[in-house]
Specification:
Blueprint (H helix, E strand, L loop, with lengths): L4 H15 L12 E6 L6 E9 L2 E10 L2 H14 L4 H14 L8 H4 L15 H17 L8 E5 L3
Parallel strand pairs: 1-4
Antiparallel strand pairs: 1-2, 2-3
Length: about 160
């Protein structure tokens, strides 16, 4: 089965994000952070956020996992930086729809993360692709709950 030029481009972008991840590392100033594990495959993602006045001022991730989970985390950080929290959460919802094979309203705002739409053909990989996005949602849910800035560890349950 020959890959189309578009499939080749998608693969190249995914490999680039996995091999040269954007915003990987540790934040100096963190308002909330979480580590989320996918117990089925062993992927682990730590997402750190600095949210000021309802805006994602900075975001970093670290962790280990497959190409899909690492690329997705890199893409997620680029998509949400500088966005209001509500918009970041909306993008997370839309990304979840994309990897399930559904059309979304704000494809352009997802940026490179749209390249992971092909994951919908491999249901076992959807959790890999959504791990960092679920971590983002959980970290933002922790804002204002008294655990802000503290690392919270959870297993992915969805």
């Amino acid at each position: 089965m020959a890959l189309t030029k578009l499939d080749q481009l998608y693969r190249a972008v995914i490999l680039d994000h996995s091999q040269s991840p954007r915003r990987r590392g540790v934040l100096d100033e963190t308002t909330t952070q979480i580590e989320l594990r996918n117990p089925t495959c062993g992927d682990v993602i730590q997402v750190q956020l600095n949210v000021q006045d309802g805006i994602v001022k900075d975001v970093r991730f670290d962790g280990s996992g497959c190409t899909i989970s690492m690329a997705s985390a890199s893409m997620m950080t680029e998509a949400i930086i500088g966005k209001p929290v509500e918009e970041a959460l909306k993008l997370s919802e839309e990304f979840s729809q994309v990897v399930q094979g559904n059309d979304v309203e704000h494809e352009q705002e997802l940026g490179d993360a749209m390249m992971l739409s092909g994951v919908s053909k491999f249901p076992a990989r959807i959790k890999c692709a959504t791990l960092s996005w679920k971590a983002l949602e959980k970290a933002l849910a922790n804002q204002g709950t008294g655990v802000d800035g503290q690392l919270k560890h959870e297993d992915m349950t969805e």
